[in-house]
């Protein structure tokens, strides 16, 4: 039976890859890479795939190969967001299933390297479940956790994620204005391309923002929203333009 290892590799710093992940990577015959890079240009593709390759070259002793799977297109502003995401995930499942069937031997071990942790705002496990539920190929999978982006954020800023007795709310920029009453004390916000905090937060709210965490081009900004909010927006836009991609996250504290 084919085996698939879904391996969390942290936000990008090779030093944050766990020993469990390294052991798993050394058992993989082929890594399947599904990136958003094709829609963003060749330089971005080389950068994102290159980060994965750097981690593999650093820690793997044996032979392995990369199988690149082109990411299907996605409507970024659909009328029905959930329906579009489900369609996109199904299309991804089609492509990965086909690649597993043609590129991996019946007794082979495949690997998917996931930024951060596979359980936190990543679609890989949903796609793997879809492939297994279809039953067209026999597949056994294992999940290896990774360092999360918010643990890297708090470490970089040398702060605690919450104050004594306060809850932590993890959300996205798209849902930031829907944070329920009582959950806004400490909000960890991901996938906020529009810097939604500029519309939802008070000028006195504290924000700790980070991009490219753990990489050579890491950027950190902290302060009140009134003091640094526009700086974050401008810095984020400039960084995305410069690199062609950006991975960022922030902690917003009421």
UniProtKB/TrEMBL annotation:
Pathway: Cofactor biosynthesis; adenosylcobalamin biosynthesis
InterPro entries: 4pyrrol_Mease, 4pyrrol_Methylase_sf, 4pyrrole_Mease_sub1, 4pyrrole_Mease_sub2, CobF
Superkingdom of this protein's organism: Bacteria
GO MF, one annotated term: precorrin-6A synthase (deacetylating) activity
Root EC class: transferase
One biological process term in Gene Ontology: methylation
Tetrapyrrole methylase domain span: 3-228
Gene3D superfamilies cross-referenced by the UniProt entry: Cobalt-precorrin-4 Transmethylase, Domain 1, Methyltransferase, Cobalt-precorrin-4 Transmethylase, Domain 2
Lipoprotein keyword on record: no
EC number of this enzyme: 2.1.1.152
UniProt keyword list: Cobalamin biosynthesis, Methyltransferase, S-adenosyl-L-methionine, Transferase
NCBIfam families: CobF
Protein name per its UniProtKB record: Precorrin-6A synthase (Deacetylating)
Organism (species): Gordonia rubripertincta (Rhodococcus corallinus)
């Amino acid at each position: 039976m084919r085996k698939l290892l879904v391996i969390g590799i942290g936000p990008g710093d090779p030093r944050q890859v766990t020993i469990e992940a390294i052991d798993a990577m050394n058992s993989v015959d082929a890594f399947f890479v599904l990136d958003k890079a094709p829609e963003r240009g060749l330089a971005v593709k080389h950068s994102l795939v290159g980060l994965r390759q750097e981690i593999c070259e650093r820690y793997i002793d044996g032979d392995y190969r990369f199988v690149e799977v082109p990411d299907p297109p996605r409507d970024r502003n659909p009328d029905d967001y959930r329906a579009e995401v489900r369609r996109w995930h199904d299309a991804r499942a089609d492509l990965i299933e086909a690649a597993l069937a043609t590129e991996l031997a019946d007794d082979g071990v495949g690997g998917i390297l996931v930024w951060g942790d596979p359980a936190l705002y990543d679609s890989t496990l949903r796609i793997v479940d879809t492939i297994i539920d279809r039953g067209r190929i026999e597949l056994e999978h294992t999940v290896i956790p990774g360092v999360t982006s918010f643990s890297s954020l708090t470490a970089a800023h040398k702060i605690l994620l919450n104050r004594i007795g306060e809850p932590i709310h993890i959300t996205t920029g798209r849902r930031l204005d829907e944070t329920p009453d009582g959950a806004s004390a400490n909000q960890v916000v991901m996938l906020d391309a529009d810097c939604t905090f500029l519309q939802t937060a008070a000028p006195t709210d504290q924000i700790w923002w980070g991009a490219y965490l753990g990489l050579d081009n890491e950027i950190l900004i902290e302060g009140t929203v009134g003091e640094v909010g526009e700086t974050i927006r401008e810095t984020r836009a400039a960084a995305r333009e410069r690199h062609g991609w950006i991975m960022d996250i922030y902690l917003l504290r009421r």
